[in-house]
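Ops channel
N.P.: pipeline sanity check, posting one input/output pair.
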């Protein structure tokens, strides 16, 4: 028995040394792994950098200069430009939709004597969502309230809501802008009044004894409103500077349509759509102002319904027109 123990002792000793070596090796590997993890964490803190966007000395709205040297004006702009820069998916969607809707809106603004910058007000109002409806029941691209829309000649009933009619709602908004400009004499106050209301702006200017809506103490939404317009305008003018690089095929195309004049009541719009090579959903997509499954026309009234060509409903990157070359690629 003693001889056996003498024989096993070297074996046990060798095993112990082997296990000790493995233990020390594993500790060394563990330490190395821990160092790697610590290094990786340090790298992750620097690889995904978030930088504050530079604030310009001044910005411009409708040809009017706004200096951003006063601390509150600078910080209000700073908040909005950084919000749009880092709200990536939303701002990308703005750029894509603008390629479809700005070509419709811009000519109508020009035709009605409204500065081109008001297209950004439309974007801020609705995100260029043709079906936009606010909690306060403001509707359409221009987010018109029912009473205001009717004041400016839009038809709203159970079958039709022209706040969702892009061209007619744009003209109604233009008429509001002209009325507000006649009251205030500058486009900045006009823009803020579109959010807060003319009565609110007029009474606040008087009560607070200032001459510009920029100097008014207003609720947060109204206070931010013009600066959101200014920020998205600046980003749209050079999106690549803010990290937005799109290809032509990323933009939503403006789909050609033909206008069909209708002079008789349509009892079933789904059947009407089928007769014109569409389904009901697509008919409403191109005519969101139709709010029911029928359209009643009386007293010799007519209306225009737009119908796309079937071939234009399918994606083809070769036919996409880029409305603003600054929206694609980088300079």
């Amino acid at each position: 028995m003693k001889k056996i123990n003498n024989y096993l002792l070297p074996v046990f000793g060798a095993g112990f040394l082997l296990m000790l070596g493995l233990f020390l090796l594993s500790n060394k590997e563990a330490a190395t792994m821990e160092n790697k993890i610590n290094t990786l964490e340090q790298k992750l803190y620097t690889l995904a950098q978030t930088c504050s966007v530079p604030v310009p000395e001044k910005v411009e709205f409708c040809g009017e200069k706004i200096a951003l040297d006063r601390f509150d004006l600078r910080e209000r702009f700073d908040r909005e430009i950084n919000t749009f820069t880092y709200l990536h998916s939303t701002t990308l969607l703005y750029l894509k939709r603008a390629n479809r809707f700005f070509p419709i809106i811009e000519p109508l603004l020009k035709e009605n004597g409204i500065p081109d910058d008001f297209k950004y007000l439309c974007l801020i109002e609705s995100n260029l969502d043709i079906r936009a409806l606010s909690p306060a029941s403001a509707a359409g691209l221009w987010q018109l309230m029912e009473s205001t829309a009717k004041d400016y000649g839009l038809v709203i009933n159970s079958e039709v809501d022209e706040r969702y009619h892009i061209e007619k709602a744009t003209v109604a908004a233009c008429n509001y802008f002209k009325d507000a400009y006649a009251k205030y004499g500058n486009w900045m106050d006009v823009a803020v009044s579109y959010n807060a209301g003319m009565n609110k702006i007029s009474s606040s200017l008087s009560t607070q004894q200032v001459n510009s809506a920029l100097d008014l103490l207003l609720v947060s939404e109204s206070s931010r409103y013009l600066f959101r317009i200014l920020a998205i305008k600046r980003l749209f003018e050079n999106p690549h500077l803010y990290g937005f690089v799109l290809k032509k095929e990323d933009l939503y195309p403006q789909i050609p349509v033909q206008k069909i004049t209708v002079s008789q009541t349509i009892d079933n719009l789904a059947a009407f759509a089928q007769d014109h090579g569409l389904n009901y959903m697509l008919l409403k997509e191109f005519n969101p102002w139709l709010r029911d499954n029928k359209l009643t026309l009386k007293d010799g009234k007519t209306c225009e319904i737009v119908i796309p060509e079937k071939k234009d409903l399918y994606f083809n990157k070769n036919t996409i027109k880029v409305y603003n070359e600054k929206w694609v690629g980088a300079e």
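N.P.: looks fine end to end. The chain is about 50% helix and 5% strand.
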